[in-house]
Amino acid sequence: MKVCTLTAILVTLGWPSVAAPGPPPMPPPDASELERIFATPPGSLSFGGTGGGRLERGEEIPLSGRGWAFIPVVRARHTNHGTREMAGLLRRVAARVADAHPGARLGIGNVSLPTGGRSRWHASHQAGRDVDILMFARDRRDRATNPTRFLGFDADGRSRDGRYRFDVERNLTLVEALVTDPQVGVQWIFVSDGLKALLLEAATARGLPAATVERLGEVLHQPTDALPHDDHFHVRLYCSPEDRRYGCLDFAPFWPWVERGDEAFSARVATLLRVLEVPDEQVRLRGIRALADLRAIDAVPSLVSALYDDSEPVREASLRAIRVIGSPSALGGLLDALGRTDDPAWAARLFSAAVTLPTDAVLEVARTYLKTPARYLSDPVAKADPTPLLTATARVLGRYGRPEVVPELLELLTAPRAETREAARDALISVTNRAPDAPSPSTARKAERARAVWTRLWDRHKAASWHEWLRGGFEAAGYRLRGSLSDPRSIEVLIEATGDSRSYISENAVRLLSEVTGHAVDPRSRPPSRQQRHWRYWWEHNAP
Questions:
Q1: Distance of CA 312 to CAs 3, 274, 492, Å?
Q2: What is the pTM of this model?
Q3: pLDDT tens digits, residue range 210-232?
Q4: CA diameter of the chain
């Protein structure tokens, strides 16, 4: 079996090979300890993210209580379930507001369904850590009211129907109670920019501590890819430290004043790593799945080692976990494992996992493979059908490549299998920002004709820079750019292009905007309509 030497290329890429970990600091857990390790704690468990998770043993929040009531429109939905932390927060906050403003009553909207998950009313609210709270209002006679429906306020605090205005004082007490709660970490209170400005002005006038005003400035936030939230507060909690240890997922930003239980999380990962040393295959599989649920980056070296496990299910589970965690630190270990296997099917899966890691370094890996496959592959794999590896390579070139990769894609355009040829065609469209009138390379004859069309296009423009390629493609698609690419007029045109239904136009507009503005966004992180909404909002708040 051939072992490829990766040191030089990995140093060049900036990603050192992941070394196999040394012996575990403690012996593998015995049966009684394993039972404790895999047991989840009593009470609620928020699992996964707020936009794709679930709620286990959620707490049913009463439809009404001291200082709060679920609004009529949601009472029959059974969306009054959340984590224990969410239920406690609502009770405490409602009491604080009621004490400060007698007669005040929070109008509560959706929390989550009994077991979480997606609902017809929200894409989020899936893990018991989101809640909608209606905004307090005052009527035309300046009387405090507790709305039971969504009103909607403009930047000056006037309701859409003209009958109410935003009750700054009571709403400030509400958001202050949320961000200063001693037991729960609030990540976001989604609210429109205009209402946020009113609240921050009132916080300063009230003389709130500077630290509290700072927290409000961070946590109050108008989302960039959703409605502005001018008719309710959408409150999102961080995972509790306990839930985080069992698969609850948070995403940045992480406010420095919130205790997330980092030490306990690391200890949990270390315990699960000991599970990987247990002889029982089923136990090791459970440990690997748990590490994947935690997105445990520190587990990557051990998961790479498990790629050599005697058990095929363990090897496959380890590879899946590495892909789920998605840490670029796995690149060296995956390439090392690729060079050690004689199994072409396993090699294809290892290669695919390596080149889909979120790092530009995989572009050089893909180009190196095309030039010298033996650099990475054992002899049996190098002699096997290369279609899966070539197809994966074409996709990488399309995602990260610039015009210098066009000659390589032209070669792949006439590869033996249609799967590779079509991936090469898609990559050429992405890299050149053009979709010329060329036949689909579905057959060998059509592939030759398609290659001739693409070759003529390349010959005409191969001296052009990447920016020139993109600009020409946008203008061919009907987007006229004015001045330099960083000119505000061009940026506004590119923002329009982010919403184009042609994926290559939308994605390249995002790539170019990310470069010229310094506001980096993954081109494939949102559908075009949401990309456009995001960029319009960002530009509105950051244009010179």
A1: 20, 20, 53
A2: 0.88
A3: 999 999 999 999 987 777 899 99
A4: 85
